[in-house]
Amino acid sequence: MSNQKFLSAQIKRRTLLKSMAAAGAAAGASTLGLNRAFAQEPEKPAEIIVRAWGGSWVDALKAGVSDSFTKATGIAVRHDLTEDNEIQPKVWAAVAQKRVPPIHINWDTTTNATKSALRGVTEDLSDLPNLKNTTDLSKPVGLDGYPIVNTYGYVYVLAFRPEAFPNGAPKSWNDLLDPKLKGRIALYNDGIGFHFPAQVAGGGKLEDIPANMQPAWDFITKIKAQQPLLGEDPDFTTWFQRGEIDAACTISTNAREAKKNGINIDWVVPEEGAKFDTDGLWIPKGLPENELYWAKQYINHALTKEAQQVWLDGLGLPGVVPGLTPPADLVGDPSYPTTEEDFKHLIRISTKVQVENESQWFAKFKEIMQG
Amino acid sequence: MSAAPAGVPQQETAAAAAVSVKRVSKVFGDVHAVREASFDLPKGRFLTILGPSGSGKTTLLRMIAGFDAPTEGDIYIGGQPVKAVPPHKRAIGMVFQKLALFPHMTAAENVAFPLKMRRHDARTIPEKVERYLELVRLGGYGKRRIDELSGGQQQRVAIARALVFEPDLLLLDEPLAALDRKLREEMQLEFRRIQKELGVTTINVTHDQREALVVSDEIVVMDGGEIQQMAQPVHTYRTPANAFVANFIGVTNFLEGSVVETSNEAIALSVGGMRVKGVAGGTAKVPAQGELAAGALRAEQIRIAPTVQGFSGLANVVSGEVRDAIFEGERIVYEVVVPELGGAVLRVFDHDAESHQQFGPGDSVALGWNAKDMYIFKK
Amino acid sequence: MRPSRAAYPIRWRVMDILEQVAGKLWPRSFSAGLPYLMLLPALLLVGVLVWGLVEIGDSSLRTLDTSTFLMSENYTLANYQRALSERFFTTVAGRSLMGSLIVTVVTLIFAFPYSYLMVRTQSSALRKFLLVALFLPFFIGQVVRAYGWLIILGNQGMVNEALGLVGVTPIRLLYNYPAVLFGLVQYMLPFAVLMLAPAMTAIPAELESAASSLGANWISSFRHIVLPLSKPGLVGAGLVVFTLSLTDFAIPAILGGGSQDFIANAIYDQFFRTSDQGMGATLSLLLVAVGSILVGLVFMVFGAGTLAMGGDRK
């Protein structure tokens, strides 16, 4: 983040603070948005707990959303770095047993959040005032109301070390089949992000998802022969840094993080396309009334332009509020889609289809990779 | 085992003996466990190394067995130096202190073990095993597990196992120490019987003087890593070489005083002002007049009576007062305080069942003994 | 009265009071029940375990409905059918079982001389060194140790750097089956040594002297005496190493590069990645079953006293 931007964010935060105070005095928390009288504002909890991903992810959230929220409200924000997959059953169990859930807000993939929404453990967020300022991306597809709010999108790019591609950047996912890259490529360990481009690279059609994904499995079988490493977000950064891999299908943020750490990394959206997906925030059911109120305020705050700008500068991802300035290094980057044209190269599959079939895709991917 | 190094000077003399120990020393760190021990044991003899714990007797045995190497000196078995021969290549049968029977094998398997290890013809093994089990009177017990046998039976298995391969030498490392007295005495006789039957040269280690006297042809008494005396049992007992041997074997009273007279073998000591007559003991130099010396006197050599009547033939006669009378069954042990000897307390055995003469504490008694029964050693 | 008071120290009085209180709480007539009272915490723990197993058993009979992400109401054996028929699960199970077997054999081969030397050495310095070398890894957790191997065996790790000095291009030493087995053996070695050492201590050194005096060279002595008498330790150590390897999670996850899953990794995925508690429960139960059957078989073959270290041996 440049100094310039940091300062401007600072200023913005200060103006926010000023307007907050003014709004409070005017007996209406209008900046935070809910049309309630000051006297009725529920009691503030000492802190709210936000589950987040670690590393650069939580740093960005803290800088963009949590710190300014604490400044504005005086409520401390604690970041719980439990893995998203591990917090899910805990929240589900808490709701099933009518206990107070262990977190106030879950920062989650839209697919996983949708599972929780389908299960009915999420609070409805339709009444957040700032939703009216957001793009369509914030609305979860195929669900009633806003059980979750999407806060940004991201792309599973093909990240690579240019030294390993002396003839220029790879153009196709098929370039991963180069014998030179045997043992030098990496995918997510459940194959997430790779299933759909594999369907195209394997000669299939996206319309056949989920009915016929044989082309994807055939392509993944070919990839298996390349002995890929399989890991999670932090693994990709580490592997690039330690020189274990030359190419990976990973979220652009991880590649950008390695680049920030001085590793020569570049990324492309290959001709077959790359998976585009969203992450969101949601609130589990079962919170006390006042904590629910302030948890909603947190999400509402995360949808302000000011918060989005700083948060997503950190992540290098496109947000859901119009008019955000892309980080300088990502202007025109395929992993930072802003225009209609950008989105044409990206693959978006409905959340519903993903939620219903993901388990099977993961299982199939594992079956091929573990064989 | 074949090529004995040429030029070993003792070789010819060593060849006569089944076992020959030549100036053997063993040093552990700064502890001199064995110091210049030497002896020759003729074939077929039963030798006991007798000594208190820490006397070096077990170390000497372990060196003969090959588990430890001498720091100095040489050991010859059957005339051959064995310095370079590992234990498993020495033809030595050994019965260990805790028997060291293999708990996962039957009695017969234990006995068969050395035959298998020494590659005896497999067809002859069962017959040999049975023969040796019968020798130790365990015929028919072969299939028993070790823990199904009594302590005495386990002893017998251990003996059979040590003998079955017909070793040149049998070593016994205090195997009877843990047994109760009755069984121990029975096994002592058993050892003796088997040894005589087979004629195998045997070295036994024990701290039990009675065992040494009962089973041995020869006794080596050790103390402080040094051999004190090597003699036949009767000589070890009757003519101890020094005060240690006299004290270690039998119940011995010591009377200390200065020498007042020496003539040939006869020596007189002044003990508490009284003149006591004895003879020079051991092989060491006879103490000179005025030197301090100790007279060793066995408890059974002292006669005890109400009065001095009948003691006319005895060189030494004193009177005293019974302090304690201990009834031990076949004998009574009196502790008698003798004011004439400076208040010395003498232990006296009384085997005289005929007299039924029992003294009690406080009774006045007369004691008497021959001069030849008291050995005088230089202090 | 006074002198006797002085003769009765305060500490005795305190003990008297304590005894009285204890007598009130647990009268003497209950004393026969005391052993059972002592057993209570253990029974409680076992009870919780059994209760958990029953819950898991219940889950294992329900399937996941991906339209609501709730477990089905009715019972079905579908999960078991999947677990036993789908290739993925059989592959992972086969890999875990085979891997654990290899790890067990290799670990025992390494642990045996190590324990033997530790127990038999005359040098107390060497024994201390062996003990410290053994316990040091215990203070370093499994995960940290696995990451250590990543650093040592990585493409830019020490081993490859060393190979680079003699002109060998970096070799992929990590993220494969041998790497997982290697990590497991290294992790299991202390457990095996700690289980073997008491069994070896129970073999009197005199037995080996005896074997030697009876004509056995060290190989025969080892084969006929030390090895058979170490059996209780070997069986116990083998059982512990096998079950720990079979259920291990971290080593396959970290050193396997994602493609060498063991059963525990598959269970994790079911619970936390695909949210299928039913399938996860099924795999967990099958793992428990395999482990239990194995322990049962070992007990049947070698006797239940095996793990008690054979107290009757002299």
UniProtKB/TrEMBL annotation, chain A:
Keywords attached to this entry: Periplasm, Signal
GO MF annotations, alphabetized: polyamine binding
Pfam families named in the record: SBP_bac_8
This protein's GO CC annotations: periplasmic space
Coiled coil stretches, renumbered: none
InterPro entries: SBP (IPR006059), Sperm_putr-bd (IPR001188), TAT_signal (IPR006311)
Name of the protein this chain belongs to: Extracellular solute-binding protein
Organism: Oryzicola mucosus
UniProtKB/TrEMBL annotation, chain B:
Name of the protein in question: ABC transporter ATP-binding protein
Keyword Nucleotide-binding part of the UniProt annotation: yes
A GO cellular component annotation in the UniProt record: ATP-binding cassette (ABC) transporter complex
GO biological process, one term: quaternary ammonium group transport
A single MF term (Gene Ontology): ATP binding
Domain ABC transporter: 19-249
This protein's record includes keyword S-adenosyl-L-methionine: no
Keywords: ATP-binding, Nucleotide-binding, Transport
Pfam families, alphabetized: ABC_tran (PF00005), TOBE_2 (PF08402)
Family affiliation: Belongs to the ABC transporter superfamily.
SUPFAM superfamilies per record: MOP-like, P-loop containing nucleoside triphosphate hydrolases
Coiled coil start-end: none
InterPro entries per record: AAA+_ATPase, ABC_SmlMolc_Importer, ABC_transporter-like_ATP-bd, ABC_transporter-like_CS, Mo/tungstate-bd_C_term_dom, P-loop_NTPase, Transp-assoc_OB_typ2
UniProtKB/TrEMBL annotation, chain C:
InterPro entries: MetI-like (IPR000515), MetI-like_sf (IPR035906)
ABC transmembrane type-1 domain location: 93-298
Any one Gene Ontology cellular component term annotated for this protein: plasma membrane
Major site of localization recorded for this protein: membrane
GO process terms (BP): transmembrane transport
Keywords, alphabetical: Cell membrane, Membrane, Transmembrane, Transmembrane helix, Transport
Superkingdom of this protein's organism: Bacteria
SUPFAM superfamilies: MetI-like
Transmembrane parts of this sequence: 34-54, 97-117, 129-154, 174-197, 233-255, 283-308
Listed Pfam families: BPD_transp_1 (PF00528)
Membrane topology summary: Multi-pass membrane protein
Localization per record: Cell membrane
Family the UniProt entry places it in: Belongs to the binding-protein-dependent transport system permease family. CysTW subfamily.
PANTHER family documented for this protein: INNER MEMBRANE ABC TRANSPORTER PERMEASE PROTEIN YDCU-RELATED, INNER MEMBRANE ABC TRANSPORTER PERMEASE PROTEIN YDCU-RELATED-RELATED
The protein, known as: ABC transporter permease
